[in-house]
Structures are given as structure tokens and as C-alpha cells.
């Protein structure tokens, strides 16, 4: 049977080997041209990473493809190809909420590929400071979760900082219960980020009702504690389990099977038009009747669709609010530009956080 199997597989494997030889030659040709692109960019002090261009490349290939590769496969393959080409030009650094093994680190690799120098930070504030100080070119921070809502600290820092949003990543969140030996005997504490504990509260109540729940700075920190103490269980992803040598006791314990976290990429350079963009802004209005209607009227008038509307107290003691709004389109699109110009005349405060390619 083995001889028959091998005789049928050999010609197919030979064809794959021949195609691989063509692929490696073409990929090296592509990389050589990418290096030439890098030299041209140096002459004009242009950024190495252009998210809108990479989005256009991937979208074009997805449209061209007739299968069997799915769109997400093409996205993953070409992000790594382009990341490797970028690394040949110059290493890029991205700060994220650490330590190593967090979902934030996963979001960094999902967006930039694995040819990226990650800079783990202890807090979201540190991520912003790293980018502002120039110790990292980009930062990746969580902005909202489908189950728990907005990440308040990120919203507050976006208001205060001069950094721009240049991209987004929507990451499926799959929480796993992790221990040293793959069991729960002797477990006295479950350690995880507060949001992760909240996202798994029904499962924990049903399966570990008498075990203490301890909120820590990140899920990866919980995994680190579990790796040091056999009485601690962690809630984290597979990346953390692998990094800290833990076993998965129960997989996918999140209460919402469709749990997602949205991350944004922050940096100094604005992103250009990709053709599939979002624009994020913060506005405030006077506390008077019809104020919110007046705020939204320019968007409706110019045919601009709103995808997100979040309010945060202005913390001035006057019951006023900042509104965080995402709209479809780029700020350079005619309809969006007209709506923002009119909105600026009606709002008491308007800050455009950035226009950037949407996550597909």
C-alpha cells in the first residue's frame, strides 16, 4: 500500500517542487524590486510602511484569485511577503500592551506580519509614550470589545495625544483556561485581565464557582503567574500557553462564541486613501436641546455612513460629553471632507483621529 501511495504522490510532489522553485525565484525578484522602492523612498524621506498601498495590493489579489485559496489565506500570505520586504528595507518597531504572549502581540503580527520588532509595554499609556518618544514607530492598542464595550483608557489617550490612527485589526478572541499540568486539582486562583474575567464569568461561575478570580495587568501576566505557581490557573490564548509552557485545560471558555476585540494602530504619519477606509473623530457639543441631532445632520446630508458612536464624559463637572465617531470613507473623499467641514462649524470641539484602511 505504501508503494502504491508513494507512486501516486510522487508526480504530484514533483509538480509542487517545480512550482516552489518558480515561486522562490519570483519572490526574490519581488524583494529586489522592493529594495529599489526603498531607495526611492529614501530620496523623498517617505515612510517604509504604507498601509493603504498594502491593502490595495491584497484587495487586488483577492479579486483576481479564482481559488481554492480563500481571501483570508491570501491576506495572511501576502502580509508576510510584504513584511519580509519591509524588513529588507529597514526594521520597523511596534509597541503593544505586554508582556509577550498577549492578544495585543497577536494583533501586531496579524497586522504587520512576523518580520516586525515588537516592543512590549506594561500599560496602554506606555504604548502611547513609546510612539510619542520615538522608541517605537507604531503602537497597537485595544479600543473596544464586542462583549465588554470600549476600552476607556485608550479613548482618553486618543483625545489627549497628537498621534494618529493609521489602521485597525479586528481579532477573534478565544479564551482558554491554562494550568501547569492540564488539570484543575489544587487550583485556588484564576488570574487574567479584568475584561477577560468578565468575558468568561458564566463559564467560571458554572465550572469553578469557589475559585478566587484575580484581575492582573494582562492575560500574559496571568499566564506567567500560572507558570510559577501550580495553584494558579490563567485565562489566555494559545500564544501565551506556548510561550509560558502551560497546558490548555478547557478551550474557548468565553461566554460569547463570537467575541472580538478591535485594535487600532497609532503613529505619526497619516494613511493615504485605500478605497476601503474609515475615519475616526472626536466631537463635543454644547449641552442644549437638539445638540446631538445637529452633530449628526452633516453626516446624513452628505451621505456619510456612521459605523460607531461612543460617548465619554468630558470630566469638567458640567455633564458634557465627548463623542467618538467612526464614519465610512477617507477624510480626503469629497463627501467626507464636506461633512467634516460642516461639522466643524457646528461642533464645540472637533478632532480628527485619522483615516485608515478598514479591517476586512
From TrEMBL:
Main location: cytoplasm
Residue ranges annotated for the ACT domain, each copy included: 280-357
Biological process per Gene Ontology, one example term: chorismate metabolic process
EC number, UniProt record: 4.2.1.51, 5.4.99.5
Site (Essential for prephenate dehydratase activity): 261
Highest rank taxon of the organism: Bacteria
GO molecular function: chorismate mutase activity; prephenate dehydratase activity
Location within or outside the cell: Cytoplasm
Domain Chorismate mutase as annotated: residue spans: 3-93
Pathways involved: Amino-acid biosynthesis; L-phenylalanine biosynthesis; phenylpyruvate from prephenate: step 1/1; Metabolic intermediate biosynthesis; prephenate biosynthesis; prephenate from chorismate: step 1/1
Keywords: Amino-acid biosynthesis, Aromatic amino acid biosynthesis, Cytoplasm, Isomerase, Lyase, Multifunctional enzyme, Phenylalanine biosynthesis
Catalytic activity, reaction form: chorismate = prephenate; prephenate + H(+) = 3-phenylpyruvate + CO2 + H2O
Residue ranges annotated for the Prephenate dehydratase domain, each copy included: 93-268
Protein name: Bifunctional chorismate mutase/prephenate dehydratase
Native source organism of the sequence: Trinickia symbiotica
Amino acid at each position: 500500500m505504501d508503494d502504491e501511495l508513494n507512486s501516486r504522490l510522487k508526480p504530484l510532489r514533483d509538480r509542487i517542487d517545480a512550482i516552489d522553485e518558480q515561486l522562490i525565484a519570483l519572490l526574490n525578484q519581488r524583494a529586489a524590486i522592493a529594495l529599489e522602492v526603498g531607495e526611492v523612498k529614501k530620496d523623498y524621506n517617505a515612510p517604509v510602511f504604507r498601509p493603504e498601498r498594502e491593502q490595495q495590493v491584497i484587495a487586488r489579489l483577492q479579486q483576481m484569485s479564482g481559488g481554492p485559496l480563500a481571501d483570508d489565506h491570501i491576506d495572511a500570505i501576502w502580509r508576510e511577503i510584504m513584511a519580509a520586504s519591509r524588513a529588507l528595507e529597514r526594521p520597523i518597531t511596534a509597541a503593544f500592551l505586554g508582556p509577550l504572549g498577549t492578544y495585543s502581540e497577536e494583533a501586531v503580527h496579524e497586522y504587520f506580519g512576523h518580520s516586525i520588532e515588537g516592543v512590549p509595554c506594561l500599560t496602554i499609556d506606555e504604548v502611547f509614550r513609546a510612539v510619542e518618544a520615538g522608541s517605537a514607530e507604531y503602537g497597537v492598542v485595544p479600543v473596544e470589545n464586542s462583549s465588554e464595550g470600549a476600552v476607556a483608557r485608550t479613548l482618553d489617550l486618543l483625545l489627549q495625544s497628537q498621534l494618529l490612527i493609521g489602521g485597525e485589526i479586528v481579532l477573534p478572541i478565544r479564551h482558554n483556561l491554562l494550568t501547569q499540568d492540564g488539570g484543575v486539582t489544587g487550583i485556588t486562583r484564576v488570574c487574567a485581565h479584568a475584561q477577560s474575567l468578565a468575558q468568561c464569568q458564566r463559564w467560571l461561575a458554572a465550572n469553578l464557582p469557589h475559585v478566587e478570580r484575580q484581575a492582573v495587568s494582562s492575560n500574559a501576566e496571568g499566564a506567567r503567574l500560572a507558570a510559577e505557581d501550580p495553584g494558579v490557573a490563567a485565562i489566555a490564548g494559545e500564544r501565551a500557553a506556548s510561550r509560558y509552557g502551560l497546558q490548555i485545560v478547557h478551550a474557548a471558555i468565553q461566554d460569547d462564541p463570537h467575541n472580538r476585540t478591535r485594535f487600532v494602530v497609532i503613529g505619526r504619519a497619516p494613511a493615504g486613501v485605500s478605497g476601503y477606509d474609515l475615519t475616526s473623530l472626536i466631537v463635543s457639543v454644547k449641552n442644549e436641546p437638539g445638540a446631538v441631532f445637529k452633530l449628526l445632520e452633516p453626516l446624513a446630508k452628505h451621505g456619510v455612513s456612521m459605523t460607531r458612536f461612543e460617548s465619554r464624559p468630558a470630566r469638567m463637572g458640567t455633564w458634557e460629553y465627548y463623542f467618538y465617531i467612526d464614519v465610512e470613507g477617507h477624510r480626503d473623499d469629497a463627501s467626507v471632507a464636506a461633512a467634516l467641514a460642516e461639522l466643524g462649524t457646528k461642533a464645540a470641539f472637533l478632532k480628527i483621529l485619522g483615516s485608515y484602511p478598514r479591517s476586512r
